[in-house]
Design brief:
five-stranded parallel β-sheet, Rossmann fold, 8 helices, alpha/beta, about 180 residues, single chain
């Protein structure tokens, strides 16, 4: 069973992933794969600043990065876990890159737009304009939710999210 977690920026994918790991789900994150391909944080920041303002440069970067990321994720998912654990890919831009047909189950974590902006400003140091630009570069999270098999709302506490992670894992196990 090929499982994917997607969602908008600052919706809580990383926190949810950590809860899923604690619950026995093995994960691979597309962002981590990118960090392996471009290991220098200063370089990633420079590239991001450059491509978010230039759609042609962004497309060129994506044409290079996306096939490498897809291949790494596919390799991870194609290897059966030695201990029978479920495996899941975290792909923020799943629908934008049109990889949804690669997955049997898609879970979307969603938050309100205001929560996304607030998190980007407080946790990542973005200005409101920078946060809005990041949101504009992605499919709205509500559209991602509509296209997913399972939706987790993250507008509450970490403990509420943990409880939803447990429910999601139970739901997955009932299907495997």
């Amino acid at each position: 069973m090929r499982i994917c977690l997607t969602g908008g920026i600052a919706c809580g994918k990383s926190l949810l992933s950590s809860f899923l790991n604690e619950l026995g789900i093995e994960t691979i994150d597309a962002d981590d794969v990118v960090h392996q391909l471009i290991p220098n944080p200063a370089e990633r920041k420079r590239i991001a600043a450059e491509v978010f303002g230039d759609p042609i440069k962004r497309k060129a970067l994506e044409a290079w990065l996306h096939p490498l990321v897809r291949e790494e994720i596919s390799s991870f998912l194609n290897v059966t876990s030695t201990n029978g654990r479920l495996r899941l890919a975290v792909i923020p831009l799943l629908f934008e890159v049109q990889w949804q047909s690669d997955y049997d189950i898609i879970c979307c974590i969603a938050s309100s737009r205001e929560n996304q902006i607030s998190r980007m400003m407080t946790k990542r140091g973005y200005s409101r304009d920078e946060a809005e630009a990041r949101l504009a570069a992605q499919l709205p999270v509500e559209e991602k939710a509509e296209k997913s098999h399972y939706v987790i709302r993250n507008d509450g506490t970490a403990e509420e999210l943990r409880a939803q992670a447990v429910a999601f894992v139970d739901w997955l196990k009932s299907r495997s």
